[in-house]
Design goal:
four-stranded antiparallel sheet, single chain, Rossmann fold, Helix Hairpins, 20 helices, six-stranded mixed sheet, alpha/beta, 14% strand
């Protein structure tokens, strides 16, 4: 379906439930649903919303309304005929929503009076309405790649800290080793040539022990890594067999079998190669173990002789061996540090890419929102203006910081407000991970010790993960300009809020608009001067509007092409009349239901003529 294609509902049929056997043919322009209280006006519109799967501006109402639909519709269904200039199709949907088309929820919009009021009262709803108008998709908060990377980086930073603590002792160990070597040389010079020869022999044996131990460790570690590769190769074989055994397009049978056979041949070769390497590694491990045992056995009598012969030499030898082992660990830790630093750099780059991708999406969404806001504002009177402040919604950012700092002794509310107003979540994340308290203090204008305490308490995996997921959103506001004074929607009364929001809804002419009693909080003068013409403008633009109302000005002054009159006996609702606004039976229904009858209407008209002339 082409997204900008103008579509409309041409027919509605309901089987089962309160409005069973309802069959309505709608016009492409203005359709007005009238009837007394309890006749089923709201039910009719909600069934259309249900069939199309239209979103709610206030999602809190969704569950309650869906439960109402199940009760009212029961085992029945709703059938809609939908048309466009290029296409026509039909959808039939049951009470649970089965049968919906996923591509229909974007070309129509439904609002009840409560939703219109809720939009004006809620920053989230205002943003959602503008996004519906702009046809944009908000940033998906479910992308947790930055969160996962941040948690992994936290773990690696912890490992790196432990490694650095041990490496801090490296210089001391080296000095102790040099001193022990010097003591050993001094002792060796004091003993006989035979002892010196035995000492050299012991050093050679111990070198062989160290070499054998390293070979044994390296072969064992390689065997463990090779085991993972072998498992993966075996798993590949199972997948290839599944591919050959499973159903395949007949046209690709030979190709798939050939590729699978080639892949199996290659896999078998790899498996044989891995098996050969495994055998060689096992032999190498066994040989290293034998060499180590043999060298240790060879060293034992030599060391015994030297210990007996040289007073104190054995102690120095043991000390040197212990220091040599520690220095070997230092070398391994240095290599491990390089690995950790490399992992951190890769993860940081990947996370930065995720942030950059989200930023690109956010910028695109912002530009689309700006265009929609400008388009809406141009289509309205000068009294109503829509604005979009980029990345101004910091509520989730502030909430994450507030939650993270609970339990700290720091007076953090002011700090949270300063950070939310001056920094991005990714900026704070970087400062915390790098422990840059001074930079944080300078950025928000607080003492360095307070910034350090904030970072220390915030540097926890859950807090950092949540921060990595946080995205600032745009803030949408509706403004009413009266006598040159610009007032935010938050400063307006309920009626004023509706007076601002309803024209925004009606200003769009690209999709079907369904409204349930939108005039409840509006006075008649405003309705006639500002709203009715908007209904007519939509009709002239071939934009379909379906509105339920108690106000006669909407069907009459809006010159509704279709008026549907509903009535109910309290058990079932039905269509009593349907036709254009000026059809005699429809005029009678409007007069009786919405004007209090012809006599009441005539009396009011006479009153207005008499008193209007006297006032004039």
């Amino acid at each position: 379906m082409v997204q900008d294609e103008c579509m409309w509902i041409s027919r509605l049929r309901i089987s089962g439930g309160f409005l069973a056997d309802t069959d309505i043919a709608f016009t492409r322009g203005l359709n007005v649903v009238i009837g007394g209280r309890g006749a089923g006006k709201t039910t009719l519109l909600e069934l259309i919303r249900h069939a199309l799967g239209l979103p709610y501006a206030d999602e809190r109402r969704a569950q309650k309304t869906n439960e109402m639909i199940r009760t009212i519709l029961g085992n029945g269904s709703v059938t809609l005929d939908v048309e466009s200039e290029l296409d026509a199709f039909r959808v039939t949907v049951d009470a649970d929503g089965a049968g919906r088309r996923g591509d229909l929820s974007d070309w129509a919009l439904m609002m009840s009076q409560n939703e219109i009021e809720a939009i004006a009262s809620s920053a989230d709803a205002r943003l959602n309405l503008l996004d519906l108008r702009a046809r944009v998709t908000q940033i998906d908060p479910s992308d947790d790649s930055a969160d996962v990377l941040t948690r992994q980086m936290f773990e690696w930073r912890g490992q790196l800290g432990s490694v650095d603590e041990e490496l801090a002792q490296a210089d001391i160990l080296q000095r102790e080793f040099d001193q022990a070597t010097q003591r050993e040389a001094t002792l060796m010079s004091a003993v006989s040539t035979e002892v010196a020869s035995m000492r050299a022999k012991l050093a050679d044996i111990e070198a062989r022990v160290t070499s054998a131990r390293q070979d044994r460790r390296q072969s064992l570690e390689t065997l463990e890594r090779l085991s993972g590769v072998t498992s993966a190769v075996a798993s590949l074989g199972e997948r290839l067999r599944d591919l050959q055994a499973g159903e395949k397009p007949s046209s690709l049978l030979l190709t798939i079998d050939r590729v699978a056979a080639q892949s199996e041949s290659a896999r078998s070769g790899i498996a044989r190669g891995m098996a050969e390497v495994s055998v060689e590694l096992a032999n190498l491990h066994e040989d290293a173990e034998r060499r180590e045992i043999a060298a240790r056995s060879e060293a034992e009598p030599v060391r015994g002789y030297l210990e007996e012969t040289e007073a104190g030499l054995g102690e120095v030898t043991a000390e040197l061996q212990a220091l040599r082992t520690k220095l070997e660990r230092v070398e391994r830790l240095r290599k491990a540090k390089l690995v950790l630093l490399g992992r951190l750099q890769v993860a940081s780059s990947a996370r930065q890419s995720a942030f950059a991708a989200a930023e690109v999406i956010g910028e695109r969404v912002y530009q689309e929102r700006i265009r929609a806001a400008e388009e809406v504002s141009r289509g309205l009177t000068e009294r109503v203006v829509v604005t979009v402040d980029h990345l101004a919604d910091t509520r989730s950012f502030s909430q994450i910081m507030m939650s993270a700092m609970q339990g700290s002794s720091l007076q953090y509310r002011g700090i949270v407000e300063l950070i939310a107003n001056r920094m991005l979540p990714s900026d704070l994340l970087e400062l915390v991970e790098q422990g840059r308290a001074k930079d944080l203090a300078e950025s928000i204008g607080i003492a360095s010790d307070r910034a350090a305490r904030f970072i220390e308490h915030f540097d926890r995996t859950d807090a950092l993960g949540a921060l990595a997921r946080t995205r600032l959103d745009d803030r949408v506001d509706f403004w009413l300009v009266e006598k040159g004074v610009k007032k935010s929607v938050d400063q307006l009364s309920t009626g004023q809020r509706c007076a601002v929001t309803l024209p925004l809804l009606l200003s769009e002419h690209s999709r079907t608009l369904i409204l349930d009693q939108p005039e409840d909080h509006l006075d008649n003068a405003y309705l006639v001067d500002n709203i009715v013409d908007s209904f007519a403008s939509r009709a002239l633009a071939s934009a379909q509007t379906i509105v339920a109302t108690h106000n006669p000005n909407i069907p009459v002054l809006g010159e509704a092409g279709c008026v549907i009159s509903l009535e109910s006996d309290g058990i079932e609702g039905r269509v009593s009349e349907i036709g254009p606004f000026d059809a005699p039976k429809i005029v009678d229904r409007i007069t009786r239901l919405m004007e209090g009858g012809a006599e009441a209407f005539a009396r009011r008209a006479a009153f207005y003529r008499q008193h209007g002339q006297s006032v004039g």
